[in-house]
């Protein structure tokens, strides 16, 4: 049967799927237990077609797309169609067998049946605070194999024909620290999928299965047409870019990441083959995670209004060498992959900047600065884990300054309110502020990084950090200067501050210690000497730049400075 | 005696005048005066009183809905404001929740803060998470800071310290110093404006309040003067975002409460009209020129939220949970580069406006589609005040939509309607299915100029079975002002485990809240017999960070009331999230008291039964396009000539000055004794 597609129904059906994905997200965020999912919204929901193409994704965290992409593929690899039944739900987190990108992200997928046939999958993914392994939070950057990182779950059925398999649930929970919260979060994930299934079935009833499935395909075509149209507006050419990670997670020299990118008519080719073998530390990126970075970057640069379905992936071709940093093989450790992911985005932006400089931003803080505090809470005598990722600067643009103190690229998680943090954990925040001069100078200034100082109260705390951009600062564009690098400092204002490595796990902090997390700023855009006088004065008045930066970077004289009311504490 | 309600919108100022003795009411529309809203208020009051020959002295109630506060924030024209906060935390206002405004759009900006960084002063003070004072504040330091700020030409102060919701000592110390050295300055303390936990939201709310205060005071004083000039002797009441009204002096103290009050009066009006007609579970649907506002009313009570944002800035005061979407009569339709039809959120505004205005707008909008389909009468647009031409609408739709989609002009126009309806459906889904409600359990109450045009089709899409169109849908907001109660909410955050608490704790928290409420209602001159208190506790499982609201008896709470709370919480959890866990520990977070002064409600006038056939109200028969039937000859009725009637079969169009109602084929309606159209979908 052939269907004549119309642009009206296309829009209505796209609306319907987005609505379903968003409703799933609302159910998940609201019913989860852990602050990581509820407050920080470290979760995503999506609908896939029966073949595993993304149809709609409720967008919280771009990185999650990676796990979503592999999940249906790996279910289909492990289960014959006749073994998949209505009411089944699959659980998985393994990067090498379950589509995951690191172990804390647990995905739950459910086939949606209509008229005895799978018409779609609904999937949600949530970052769990802990899935076992050698450090609290399961997120160490310095593990050597994935076996150190926590429980590995290939796609298995956690529900069989509507019945929860309690054996599997108990097995998983026993492997996690603080498992009652894990249980609550997993139940929220189940509830989320049940809602998704119900809504997709309602859509089948409303539009008819044939029409709905045909339009699912057409939605993919639509998004492919849209990106091809947009790519055709960009001049052809080949562009290369290399950027660096601080280390391999085990103390090595900086690790390069490279892309050769070619625009050819209506397609973009990315060659990632010139990258190093997978590294010893936990910075390795699985192929699906690499894809999530590619799709994110090109959507931002080429056409931000692309629908969040997989049709546009068809205009993007890529090449990788299995067993390398950006397409690792079992048993490479991957928990620290997020910084690598951010750097992949940076190299794509760096390459695209050479052809469409007005559509990109300068180098961003591009680290996912995660700090994890764990220990026994002296008030409750229970073990606690507090995980936070601290935002930083976003790169300057051709016509505007960069955004200060925001999450960039592959993440967009919220902070935990200080009053929530201090009520729940034996910690006290001493200061939380933007760092003067951390934005790279330029005609347009880079956004500022954040400093968050936390005091350990009345207990010994185990602290782990996983961050990057602490050796090589974020780059500027078109003559803009680099932004400040980040750093993690113990007792910063004391006589002997200690600077920690950006990937150091399990540091013991004594009661009363202050841990200072200082995130990178971002690069500037254009020559600082062309910055408008008005903006320089404003930055001085508001404390975004210091007196010395005004002189050295922007060329103001002492005489000029004396007329300006410079910010003071 | 008479009651007046005046609602000031961006384009029009609507006036309703109600005869409290007969229940009959009159409406009047005039152009707004954006440079000074009080001019239109004065003229509107004068003109409607003259028109019906009523003396201003016979007006015993004057209610006013204003967008002044919202506009001050949109245009960033508030007072020069300084913030006093805990040492080390001035940037909380700017960092917010550290998220970027758009995931993929690299060029979007964060909302600009209302206090610039150099005016955010840090003081040495600290309260711990258990409410104990870690560092007491030094009056000397406060006074020095105040002196410095004063020299900067600051007009207003916001004070917000960490954990002040648990212990306000240090904020109070600042207040004492302000009174001492700078008594004339406007100020707000976070512990008074929103004594609730989560520092960014409390801070943002306090800052909005201080930013609005001085300008609101000027506006309100001015407005009151003008109303007096007309001879109205009563003190005006101002609509709040919670659907209630407050005296002008209370409004000047907490203007943040009015910051999103625009749509709330309409919700109150819709509740009142629907309840009179016998409907307690409704979805309010207000479709105007640029946006649509929807809200959910459960058992006669609007849903409230503390999570709304004013132009991107969080405001934690309880407000009616109105969800807005950029879909209105002026929403622009276009076919994108890959062949999908998009409608809105861009709007043609009033200049150049829809293509049919002939003012040079060549983009087709929703109004153009309605015109092309014959649903709007070109001769009676806005009561004949505006000349519109179908040929311009047709041309725009043909060139910009129909041609590109390979459709006829009618099909394309119908497509525009379907897409805008689907955008509005999505908004309704947010307030219903995403919160655990089934839309088919609700009646859709449609108002605003464009609501009745789309309502029945929208209801069909959503599985809603009944639609109610009030008798004056275009001025429901102004009508709502006449029925609003006097209302203010009080909150106390007190994190406590359910198992360690008891009725004594709850009573000890609610007693002072009710006392505060009582004192406020007394200051608003509400007699004791008309005072009512709604008590609410917000509970969650320990470890969760979202609370659910559970209502509590407003009198003394007994052991059995206390036990019931847990059961109610489980029920609420199941309704919202699909499950509950009977063994997991539960905690209390916030305690809220809503103090209400009940305002006497008008009895609505009834209309006569129609003894003749509906034909008596027939204006003409016009070609109208419906998806189900194609173009047909469709009867068009004059709403003012339709009496109470039992059953009229669609399709038909019903016209009145302020709106047009579309009754599609295969639906029918009746008109009740108050003149409401009630459609069975």
UniProtKB/TrEMBL annotation, chain A:
Q: Which InterPro entries match?
A: Hydantoinase_B (IPR003692), Oxoprolinase-like (IPR045079)
Residue ranges annotated for the Hydantoinase B/oxoprolinase domain, each copy included:
6-527
Offer an example of a GO molecular function term for this protein. 5-oxoprolinase (ATP-hydrolyzing) activity
Q: Which GO terms describe its cellular component?
A: cytosol
Q: Name one GO biological process term.
A: glutathione metabolic process
Could you name the domain of life of the organism this protein comes from? Bacteria
The name this protein carries in UniProt is Hydantoin utilization protein B
Q: What organism does this protein naturally occur in? A: Acididesulfobacillus acetoxydans
From TrEMBL, chain B:
One Gene Ontology term of the molecular function aspect: 5-oxoprolinase (ATP-hydrolyzing) activity
One GO term of the biological process aspect: glutathione metabolic process
Its Enzyme Commission number?
3.-.-.-
Query: Domain Hydantoinase A/oxoprolinase spans what residues?
Result: 202-488
Name all Hydantoinase/oxoprolinase N-terminal domain ranges: 3-180
One cellular component (GO) term of this entry: cytosol
- This protein's UniProt keywords: Hydrolase
Q: What is this protein called?
A: Hydantoin utilization protein A
Q: Which organism is it from?
A: Acididesulfobacillus acetoxydans
């Amino acid at each position: 049967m052939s269907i004549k597609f119309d642009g009206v129904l296309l829009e209505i059906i796209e609306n319907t799927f987005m609505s379903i994905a968003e409703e799933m997200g609302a159910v998940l965020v609201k019913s989860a237990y852990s602050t990581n999912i509820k407050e920080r919204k470290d979760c995503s929901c999506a609908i896939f077609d029966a073949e595993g193409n993304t149809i709609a994704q409720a967008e919280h965290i771009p990185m999650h797309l990676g796990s979503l992409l592999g999940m249906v593929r790996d279910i289909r690899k492990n289960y014959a169609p006749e073994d998949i039944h209505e009411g089944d739900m699959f659980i998985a987190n393994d990067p090498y067998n379950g589509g995951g990108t690191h172990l804390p992200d647990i995905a739950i997928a459910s086939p949606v049946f209509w008229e005895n046939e799978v018409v779609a999958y609904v999937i949600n993914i949530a970052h769990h605070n802990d899935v076992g392994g050698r450090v609290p939070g399961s997120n160490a950057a310095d593990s050597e194999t994935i076996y150190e990182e926590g429980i590995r779950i290939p796609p298995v059925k956690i529900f069989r024909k509507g019945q929860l398999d309690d054996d599997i649930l108990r097995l998983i929970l026993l492997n996690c620290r603080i498992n009652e919260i894990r249980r609550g979060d997993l139940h929220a994930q189940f509830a989320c999928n049940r809602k998704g299934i119900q809504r997709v079935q309602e859509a089948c009833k409303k539009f008819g299965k044939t029409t709905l499935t045909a339009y699912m395909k057409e939605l993919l075509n639509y998004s492919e047409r849209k990106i091809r149209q947009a790519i055709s507006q960009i001049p052809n050419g080949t562009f290369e870019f290399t950027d660096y990670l601080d280390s391999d997670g085990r103390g090595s020299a900086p690790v390069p990441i490279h892309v050769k990118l070619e625009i050819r008519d209506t397609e973009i080719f990315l060659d990632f083959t010139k990258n190093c073998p997978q590294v010893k530390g936990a910075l390795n990126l699985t192929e699906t995670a690499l894809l999530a970075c590619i799709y994110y970057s090109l959507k931002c640069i080429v056409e931000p209004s692309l629908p969040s379905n997989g049709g546009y992936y068809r205009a993007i071709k890529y090449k990788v060498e299995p067993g390398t940093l950006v397409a690792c093989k079992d048993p490479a450790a991957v928990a620290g992959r997020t910084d690598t992911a951010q750097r992949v985005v940076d190299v794509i932006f760096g390459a695209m900047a050479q052809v469409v400089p007005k559509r990109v931003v300068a180098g961003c803080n591009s680290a996912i600065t995660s700090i994890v505090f764990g220990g026994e809470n002296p008030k409750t005598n229970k073990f606690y884990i507090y995980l936070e990722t601290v935002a930083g600067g976003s790169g300057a643009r051709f016509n505007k300054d960069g955004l200060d103190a925001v999450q960039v690229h592959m993440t967009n998680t919220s902070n935990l309110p200080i009053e929530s943090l201090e009520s729940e954990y034996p910690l006290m925040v001493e200061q939380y502020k933007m760092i003067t001069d951390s934005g790279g100078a330029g005609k347009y200034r880079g956004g500022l990084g954040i400093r968050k100082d936390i005091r350990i109260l009345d207990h010994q705390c185990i602290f782990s950090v996983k961050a990057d951009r602490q050796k090589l600062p974020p780059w500027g564009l078109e003559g803009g200067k680099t932004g400040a690098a980040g750093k993690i400092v113990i007792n910063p204002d004391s006589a002997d501050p200690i600077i920690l490595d950006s990937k150091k796990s399990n540091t013991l902090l004594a009661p009363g210690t202050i841990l200072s997390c200082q995130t990178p700023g971002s690069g500037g855009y254009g020559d600082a000497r062309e910055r408008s006088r008005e903006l320089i004065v404003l930055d001085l008045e508001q404390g975004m730049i210091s007196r010395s930066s005004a002189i050295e970077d922007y060329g103001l004289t002492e005489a000029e400075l004396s007329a300006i009311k410079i910010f003071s504490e | 005696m008479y009651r007046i309600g005046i609602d000031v919108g961006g384009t029009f100022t609507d006036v309703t005048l109600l005869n409290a003795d007969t229940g009959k009411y009159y409406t009047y529309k005039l152009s707004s005066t954006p440079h000074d809203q009080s001019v239109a208020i004065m003229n509107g009051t004068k003109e409607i009183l003259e028109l019906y020959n009523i003396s201003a002295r016979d007006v015993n109630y004057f209610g006013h809905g204003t967008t002044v506060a919202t506009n001050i924030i949109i245009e960033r024209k508030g007072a020069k404001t300084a913030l006093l906060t805990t040492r080390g935390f001035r940037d909380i206002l700017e960092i917010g929740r550290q998220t970027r405004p758009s995931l993929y759009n690299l060029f979007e900006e964060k909302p600009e803060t209302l206090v610039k960084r150099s005016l955010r002063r840090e003081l040495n003070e600290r309260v711990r998470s258990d409410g104990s004072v870690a560092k007491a504040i030094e009056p000397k330091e406060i006074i020095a800071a105040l002196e410095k700020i004063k020299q900067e030409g600051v007009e207003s102060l916001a004070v917000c310290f960490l954990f002040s919701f648990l212990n306000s000592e240090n904020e109070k110390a600042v207040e004492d110093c302000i009174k001492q050295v700078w008594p004339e300055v406007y100020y707000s303390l976070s512990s008074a404006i929103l004594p609730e936990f989560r520092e960014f939201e409390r801070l943002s709310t306090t800052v909005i309040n201080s930013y609005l205060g001085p300008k609101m005071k000027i506006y309100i004083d001015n407005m009151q003067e003008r109303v007096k000039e007309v001879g109205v002797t009563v003190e005006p009441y101002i609509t709040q975002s919670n659907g209630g009204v407050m005296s002008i002096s209370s409004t000047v103290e907490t203007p943040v409460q009015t910051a999103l009050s625009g749509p709330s009066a309409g919700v109150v009006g819709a509740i009142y009209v629907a309840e009179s007609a016998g409907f307690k579970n409704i979805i309010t649907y207000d479709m105007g020129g640029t946006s649509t506002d929807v809200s959910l009313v459960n058992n006669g009570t609007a849903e409230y939220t503390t999570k709304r944002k004013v132009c991107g800035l969080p405001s934690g005061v309880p407000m009616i949970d109105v969800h807005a979407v950029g879909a209105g009569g002026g929403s622009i339709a276009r076919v994108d580069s890959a062949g999908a039809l998009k409608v809105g959120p861009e709007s043609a505004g009033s200049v150049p406006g829809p293509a049919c205005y002939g003012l040079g707008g060549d983009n087709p909008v929703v109004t153009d589609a309605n015109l092309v389909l014959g649903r709007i009468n070109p001769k009676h647009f806005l009561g004949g005040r505006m000349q519109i031409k179908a040929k311009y609408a047709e041309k725009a739709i043909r060139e910009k939509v129909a041609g590109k989609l390979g459709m006829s002009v009618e099909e394309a126009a119908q497509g525009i309607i379907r897409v805008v309806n689907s955008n509005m459906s999505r908004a309704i889904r947010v307030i219903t299915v995403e919160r655990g409600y089934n839309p088919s359990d609700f009646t859709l109450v449609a108002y605003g100029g464009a609501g009745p045009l789309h309502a029945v089709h929208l209801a069909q899409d959503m599985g809603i079975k009944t639609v109610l169109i009030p008798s004056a849908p275009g001025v429901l907001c102004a009508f709502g002002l006449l029925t609003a109660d006097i209302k203010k909410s009080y909150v106390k955050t007190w994190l406590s485990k359910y198992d360690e608490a008891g009725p004594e704790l709850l009573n000890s928290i609610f007693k002072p809240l009710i006392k505060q409420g009582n004192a406020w209602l007394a200051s608003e001159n509400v007699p004791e017999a008309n005072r009512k208190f709604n008590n609410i506790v917000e509970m969650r499982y320990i470890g969760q960070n979202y609370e659910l609201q559970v209502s509590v008896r407003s009198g003394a709470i007994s052991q059995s009331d206390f036990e019931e709370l847990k059961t109610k919480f489980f029920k609420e959890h199941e309704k919202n999230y699909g499950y509950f866990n009977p063994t997991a520990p539960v905690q209390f977070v916030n305690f809220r008291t809503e103090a209400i002064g009940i305002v006497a409600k008008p009895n609505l006038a009834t209309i006569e039964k129609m003894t003749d056939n509906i034909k008596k109200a027939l204006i003409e028969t016009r070609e109208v396009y419906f998806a189900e039937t194609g173009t047909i000859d469709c009867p068009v009725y004059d709403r003012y000539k339709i009496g109470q009637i039992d059953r009229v079969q669609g399709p038909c169009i019903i016209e009145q000055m302020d709106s047009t109602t579309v009754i599609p084929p295969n639906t029918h309606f009746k008109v009740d004794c108050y003149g409401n159209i009630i459609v069975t979908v």
